[in-house]
## 1
Amino acid sequence: MRWYWIDRFIEFESGRRAKAIKCVSLAEDYLHDHFSRYPMLPNALVIEGMAQTGGLLVCEHNQFTEKVILAKIPKVEFFCEAVPGDTLTYTTTIEYLKDEGAAVAATSHKGEVLQARAEIVFAHLNAPWLGTFFSPEAFLSMMRLLGAYRVGRAADGSPLLPPARLLRPGDASLGAPKTAAPDGAAPQKVQP
Amino acid sequence: MPTKEEIYEKIKVALVEALGVDEDEIQPEATLVGDLGAESIDFLDIVFRLEKAFAIKIPRGELFPEDVLTDPKYVQDGRVTELGLAELRKRMPFANLDEFAKNPVVQDFGNLLTVADMCRFVEGKVEVTP
């Protein structure tokens, strides 16, 4: 099992807001222990999903120069359970961005129903020993895997692109259009 | 322009939300760390809430000048020097450093700030209605 608690970004507005989905499947092992006759997504993992959605939003805004970690949850409320077959939509909106950290307001919806909401605070850490675990490349790889660059928009509305300094030699040849694709189609840029 | 009472009420709300404490725990003389259980990350959260509540900017180190406490010019053998105390008094006119100055151990500094200090800090940054 990998520590991915969102499946795909569906919106990504740099420095402002990100939306991702999490599909809850009975194929996931942990659901059979939580609970054996009543499988449900643990609330802690809903928080983790919202934190991954917001954490990558913060990370991208900083161009992956900061090591962003979940530091505090001042408030969280749950209104109903998430069970196999549900698709949760996590929406995170930047509340503030400072040198020392950031905070987002987050919600989780099941369709139109509010499932949970939270305030999440992130800290920026630059301890050298954390580099192995929080490398910019690791965050960039996660952004690609989750499709953020397929749906993302920069603050000026142009297609979201990875920072040039993190591109591999082969990436440039894949082409990164400077303008949005016609008809609102998701721009095809650097290979995710 | 807010009155002192309005500033106090807004600070109380910010601390209740940031620290998850009950309103009645927040008294002017309560220390943020010792009495209200604030941890280092909470100060980031509190600063943000104050900025939002009062539409002010609080640069890093203004409320809590941690740079002084890590500067060998101002700290020796885990204690703040006379020069360091003078710098802290200059940077923190809103705080009462008299007690701390009696035994200025760096690790005790975190427990210095009180709710009343926070009020004076904000009063120094906004125009207050007399």
Note: Chain A has a mean pLDDT of 86.
## 2
Amino acid sequence: MKRMVYHRRRKKLGLWLYVGAVIAAAAVALNWETSHLGTVAVGLWELTLFVVLAGVLEMMVVPLADGGGAAASFAAYFAGLLVLGPGTIAWVAALVVLFTEGVLRRTRMLRAGFNAAHSVLSLVAAGWVYHELGGKVGQVWLPAGLPAVVGAALSLWALETLWVAAAMSLERGGKVVRWLRLSLAPMLALDSALASVGLLLALLYQSRAALAGTAGWQGPALLGLITLIPSGLLYYAYRLQGHLRQVYAKSLRTLGSLVERKVEGSQPGHGERVGALAAAMAQAVELSPRQVEQIRYAGFLHDIGKVGVPASLLAKSRDHFAKESPPLRLHSQMGAQILAPIHFLMPAAQMVRAHHERWDGLGYPDGLLHEDIPLGARLLSVANAYAGMTETLTPSQAVGRLRQAAGARFDPELVEVLARLLAESGELEQGPHALPQLATGRLPTWML
Amino acid sequence: MQIHTEVDNQVPSRWLPAYNSLVGLVGYGVLVPLTLARLHAGFSDQLLWEAGFFLGLAILVGLHPVTLPGGVLSTVAFAVDYACLLIFGPAIAAWVGVISFLVLLWHRPRLRQFFNQGQVILSFAGAGWVYQALGGRFVESPGPHPLPFGEMGLALLGGAVAFFFISSLLIAVAMGLWERRSMWGVWGMSFRWVALRSLALAPFGLLMAMVYQTEGLGIVAVALFVVPLVGARYAFQGAMEMLQVHRETVQALSNALEAYDPYTRNHSELVTRYALKLGRELQLSASQMEALEWACRLHDIGKCHQDWEPIIRKPGKPTPQEWQVIRQHPVEGSQLAEQMEFLPNTAGVVARIVRAHHERLDGSGYPDGTSGKNIPLEAQILGVVDAFEAMTARRAYQPRRSPQDALAELRRDAGTQFEPRLVAALEALWERGELQVPEGPALVVRTPVAAGAPEVGG
């Protein structure tokens, strides 16, 4: 099930109201469903199976391309929905999520409550869809029951994604539609695999007597194993992918920092700061996670071309508005050339090439004007100037200088984006060097 | 598992076609009696449909295979293969394997296809034989049903292990002939770490067989297994692509960082090439090779420092202060390598290799003065090829030497500076013509920086 994993320090009233409403609705739904409990008899071992399975799968949080995560527990809940009915499985989900998130993971209680509540609501609604499409709890027969099964799975997928998208929108800004667009496709890929596992579990559950021969604990234990192997494989594969992405970002950061070691007069950590800041700005203008990732990488590597410029020519004034010598001006082009063989970094290479273009068309290397400059490069240019200036100036002085140059050097809108971002985070009142903290706090962990 | 070889510019052994044909012929020679025996036992139309269904699964799962380090294609197909064996027995399973390979490998050379078909038949036949010999029975065979799989643990394990070993050994011999290496070396490199992962898929296959034989479930429920398998496969592919991107990135950036000096340009590239050849010669394991490759690419990043450039630009011997800086570079390099994590199992190893690549056998090296066996083998390999490359390339403080001269020099230092075994192995590589040391006064390298940069002094 979709899980909200990240949180921001400052809560908003809208978010509080929304979370409260979801929890209240879930309580009402649970109460209503409780009166229908007992329509399907459940043995103790069977109930244990679902509780343990849900608990184990709840701990397997798969990193997703939208920057969030989803627990593999979808399989257990979906199976439970089909064979135990919405009431029982909603109770199981509520208790298991509260326990795993609140106790084992030590998430904030409110967050755990929201995750439990939206699971309950989704399950109850999906149970209703299953019923309306002619499905009977505990009697799943294929292929006749397929429409009801597919309908239930689809509604579960759509609803859980919707609840979380709405919460993300309230928490981090941006329209709900945007968050939905980001997460629907990755969730569909994961949920269809987990729904298959769940359906398999449901089918096996119905014929558990035939499978294990006896009625004791062996049947449920075997079912648990059968479910854990495919979902564990899935989890492992997704984890590996997410892990390698993280590792890659870390390597790029280090490789980018090599320029700072080599080039005299450069600021240690400059590339990292620019990357983090540009990525935060890219998120603020609602670019996709892929674009944000490339912008971050471009920030890490934006000065990589300086390794090709002789040291004697690199010694230059720290003032970012000073005239740069012609050989130094080659560095943006060279950086792009260095990155050219890496196909994956093609968008980042374009940004690196254009990161010294100016809004008024007087920049280099191509003298691009206004929107002809790639958006990523315009972001990078603002972030680069700000990170450079805050070495000596306070953040508010630096923003003042950026505003002076808006419309000439910088895209005026993006300068305002940065100013708003800094104002929201309280950065303007602080001294310099507070930047990376701001940016990483806002970004999904798998990206850095 | 299928064979897939894209090895650089090497001439395969002339025995390879003979071996490929032999495996193919023996395979089909085994398939004929197996098929006849199965035909004799008779089967229903439904069984044929179900076998067709499994064929579809095998093709679906086998599409877009994932390439593992060492060039072996691995798919999650092992689960389907194994389920097929447990359900239908070796004859039908072998046919499913042969036909799925025909479809999947249609564009590959015919002889290699023939080998792969023979290989899959022999694997199924051998695994089926072992499975039955240990008391296993197949779902679609006469006798009481459902099968008590719980009581056939030994047979199940034996069957899976036999399948894996027969198939991987047959492939290892073919790859060994292709690359002119010992089959055990190939096997150790390419298959040892695949073994566990493949065998972990065996329970998956067993579950498919169990679901298949459960009344009221059958083939539809088996199909449900495929969705998570395919999902996992795509995620694995994403992971492998990420690994490849990572490698390309480190390669491109480390080349660029070296390119400031036309003399050391391409140094890491060549060191990596030589070290991997030497590592193969010494039959390092896949994970050792992986760590060695990263260490070679990164061994000199410690030199990426603003104090370094004046030192290397200056002709003549470095001053004592400059030596201090020089002796520090493996330490700085290892600190940087530590910040760059690679695969989970190579993280600290790479940093240790980078740190020790200027240590000497007798303990007179730097930075720690470690000696003998305390220097990691990979670091010793890196040290030897680093010295070899430095001598055969032109440097500011010395003229370029011929590879023969350089090897003679290394031999003189064997026992004190270098491990004699490594020097001997490097010589063997040179004599076989596998080192390919670039000729000419300075390398003409097509690094982007070289093309775009203004001419740098020297």
Note: Residues 1-9, 441-458 of chain B have pLDDT under 50 and may be disordered.
